[in-house]
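Protein modeling request. Please complete all fields; requests missing the sequence field cannot be processed.
Requester role: graduate student
Desired output: 3D structure, token encoding
Chains: 1
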Amino acid sequence: MGVGGDEMAREQRPRILCLHGFRTSGEILRKQVLKWPDSVLHDLDLVFPDGPFPAQGKSDVEGIFDPPYFEWFQFNKEFTEYTNFDECLAYIEDIMIKQGPFDGLLGFSQGAILSAALPGLQAKGVALTKVPKIKFLIIIGGAKFKSPSVAEKAYASPVQCPSLHFLGETDFLKSYGLELLESCVDPFVVHHPKGHTIPRLDDKGLETTTRFLDRIRDALAGDEKH
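Delivered output (226 residues):
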């Protein structure tokens, strides 16, 4: 499901694969992102797939957003062991082949952790080998993978592509989001007063987001000329 106008306009707009949070859905993420102003959204081509696995337990958004709910992979309490992770990577690549090409990724929570790891995994040749290189990231409430088997590949070298990070003052993942920033070569940062959520954009957040997206559009336009 995409947000944006006709096919001709799509050529000029960054196409972004948007990965939702744990036990939510593509539709829920779409509703959350659409809180952002039209000035940000109208030039983006956003695609919101559901994760590959139906939720295997209670969702934190029950009673707030309607089901169904999905998850990208499963994990243990310490977030050091992952189940169905390879299946998840293959599923994302399949979406990117069938609905792409995509220029960048947007992720929230579990989707943000995934998104931030994918450029490194792609560079190492262990994920997304059949699709174009990821050119940018938008990370909302993100963190790093803790398992050495994933982390050693995902963060072997710094994330080279430009990245926009949303850090919530009361987000339980904030310290991990700051840690992720250290692995990024070209980060833009939006601080907001909320917790683990997709925030509305205040004036400063809007300015940073607009500056980031202008930078991305300029880079993509430059790529097309070469």
